[in-house]
Amino acid sequence: MSSGDPEIDEKLDKLLKKLQDLSKKTSENVLEAVSLKGDGPHFYWSINDRMFVEVPSGVELFLMTNRGEKEGKYYVFSPWRWNMGCIFLIPKEKLVKIGCN
């Protein structure tokens, strides 16, 4: 897939390579695919933005199992922003594991 802009394509390829390398660092899968329960708007704490940010329903999320949990919330990575990924703190009862793609 190409965006038509070679510079953007190169950055996307680097990001995807980085994610692929991260998921292969250990014998266990470091990034586990998850989704959110429910259909309504979801607002969760963004580590990057240091504020609550809306997480759209149906967005691709990855549980960061190597980070553990903080106060009953898991660290969840989302690559849904074009210029950078985003890490959220999401309560474990709001996540549904969807397994490997």
How far do the termini sit from each other? Answer: 18 Å
Number of helices: 1
Q: Which overall shape is indicated by the principal axes computed on the Cα atoms?
A: globular
Q: What is the total tally of β strands?
A: 8
Low-confidence segments: none
Overview of this structure, please?
It is a single chain. The chain has 101 residues and is an alpha+beta fold. It has one helix spanning 6-23; strands at residues 31-36, 42-46, 51-55, 61-64, 69-70, 73-78, 86-91, 95-97. It has one domain. The chain contains one helix and eight strands. Strands 1, 2, 3, 4, 5, 6, 7 and 8 form an eight-stranded antiparallel sheet that branches. It is globular.
Q: What's the topology here?
A:
Layout lengths: L5 H18 L7 E6 L5 E5 L4 E5 L5 E4 L4 E2 L2 E6 L7 E6 L3 E3 L4
Antiparallel strand pairs: 1-4, 1-8, 2-3, 2-7, 4-6, 5-6, 6-7
Quick summary of this structure?
The chain is 18% helix and 37% strand. With 101 residues, the protein is an alpha+beta fold.
Keywords:
101 residues, 8 strands, 1 helix, alpha+beta
